[in-house]
């Protein structure tokens, strides 16, 4: 191996390092290294929405229809009826989370016990149970329409009366 070859090899090595450095310097000018404060996009219906404006126009009758279609396969909707797969929902609105007597809740929901089922909590739960309480046993994908959630929450209030 002669020294000219070694010189060429060293020059090639240095040149590739220089080119890589320049490329990375130029590229970082285009792509900021820090994470954006706001995500560039969000999945529709996956973010928590303030439910109060929707509660003002909620329709408990429509909510009853939806609850019969969607919730009643797992939940009793009449007070004193036995729990189904899920706990009886008769007085759930305004009640502390995971406190129906005699129902064996998941530890995911029991961890939320200090909170109350406010309208907002119910709305966030019904948007995505798995996101509200990761590990919950309520295997339900969620309701993306805030109007429908408000209708159901209004119906749950009527059940609690
Ligand atoms: C596939 C069955 C299933 C469906 C459908 C379902 N739930 Fe549930 N739900 C459950 C289970 C199971 C739990 C208990 C979850 C736990 O312990 O993690 C639960 C818990 C709840 C709780 C908490 C109760 C408490 O005492 O803290 C509320 C509120 C609730 N569901 C509302 C609803 C509503 C409203 C619907 C209809 C839109 C619905 N669920 C549909 C199975 C279901």
TrEMBL record:
InterPro entries: Cyt_c-like_dom (IPR009056), Cyt_c-like_dom_sf (IPR036909), Cyt_c_1A/1B (IPR002327). It holds the Pfam family Cytochrom_C. GO terms for molecular function: electron transfer activity; heme binding; metal ion binding. Residues 58-160 form the Cytochrome c domain. Keywords: Electron transport, Heme, Iron, Metal-binding, Transport. This is Cytochrome c, class I. It comes from Acetobacter senegalensis. The gene is cyc.
């Amino acid at each position: 191996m002669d020294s000219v070859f070694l010189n060429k090899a060293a020059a090639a090595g240095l040149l590739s390092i220089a080119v890589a450095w320049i490329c990375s310097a130029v590229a970082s000018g285009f792509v900021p290294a820090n994470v954006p404060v706001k995500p560039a996009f969000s999945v529709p219906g996956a973010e928590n929405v303030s439910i109060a404006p929707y509660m003002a126009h909620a329709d408990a009758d429509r909510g009853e229809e939806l609850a019969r279609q969607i919730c009643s396969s797992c939940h009793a909707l009449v007070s004193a009826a036995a729990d189904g797969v899920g706990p009886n929902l008769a007085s759930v609105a305004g009640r502390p989370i995971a406190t129906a007597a005699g129902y064996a809740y998941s530890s995911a929901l029991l961890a939320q016990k200090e909170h109350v089922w406010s309208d907002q909590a119910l709305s966030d739960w019904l948007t995505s149970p798995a996101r509200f309480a990761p590990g919950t046993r309520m295997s339900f994908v969620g309701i993306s329409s805030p109007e429908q959630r408000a209708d159901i929450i209004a119906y749950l209030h009527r059940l609690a009366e």
